[in-house]
């Protein structure tokens, strides 16, 4: 979403923001106003206000620069696990926001580029502009991971791939496996939880509640230590915070979980929530063939555990 465009003014006495809105129908007025406030719109070479009146013969110049985002999570190209004409598979870094809060970015995806910090929707607009240009909804984002969760994330590159993946998630034909470091020692190698997950009316926090939707998760213990265990989680449903809520119900909250983890004195405190989307298996949206994508979890865990 970078480049420079010029628009000659043929009609006098029109506001600058309305003038641009008439020529950039794909952009919202709010986004255009932010571009003007950021100094990316000039009239006859000079900065101007959104309500500036234009006269015939003026020249309006729009320069949409790439947002000056830092790269605290490394380069976008380093996250790519797989890419083809229909599908992009990323190893999402922990801490990366999926998209701006609210829904205004859905009507105007370019608004994701105006956020003060990086978000995946904006990065996809910047790094893969052809995805949105093809008319793919939500910049290709078909599912989400919590901000603090890392791991395998699927992005559709075409509208057809988007529809196929949305149907696959809805029909529970996408098999997801997570890994998590959790508190406490387990008395068994296998466990399962079937409990509805959701929010009580008027509350923000996601919990196990009869007001929620059905949710089922199975767990396997992979490794144990005196202070916790590495477990593998396989959610059969896809509810928000499902794995975190179900592990909390078992008395083994994910380490670093801001909602459920409350470490005592001397217990390890990780630098992040230790939940990772480890593997995804599905039918490829273009070929129909079964494919599986995975990425290593907790690459920095050795450093964390050595600080015990």
Question: Count of DSSP helices?
Answer: 8
CATH homologous superfamily annotation of the largest domain: Pseudouridine synthase
* Biggest sheet layout: 9 strands, mixed
What is the gyration radius calculated from CA atoms?
A: 23 Å
Chart the SSEs and their pairings.
Elements: E1 3-8, E2 14-15, H1 16-23, H2 29-37, E3 41-43, E4 46-47, E5 53-54, E6 59-64, E7 80-83, E8 87-92, H3 104-107, H4 120-127, H5 129-133, E9 150-156, H6 159-170, E10 175-183, E11 190-194, E12 197-198, E13 207-208, E14 216-225, E15 228-235, H7 242-249, E16 275-283, E17 290-294, H8 301-305
Parallel strand pairs: 9-16
Antiparallel strand pairs: 1-6, 2-5, 3-4, 3-6, 7-8, 8-9, 10-15, 10-16, 11-14, 12-13, 14-15, 16-17
Helix pairs in contact: 1-2
Task: Note down, in words, how this protein is organized.
With 308 residues, the protein is α+β, with helices and mostly antiparallel strands. It folds into three domains: 3-64, RNA-binding S4 domain (Structural Genomics Hypothetical 15.5 Kd Protein In mrcA-pckA Intergenic Region, Chain A, Roll); 69-170, 2-Layer Sandwich (Pseudouridine synthase); 177-275, 2-Layer Sandwich (Pseudouridine synthase). The chain has eight helices and 17 strands. A hairpin with a 3-residue loop joins strand 7 and strand 8 (87-92). Helix 1 (16-23) crosses helix 2 (29-37). The protein is elongated.
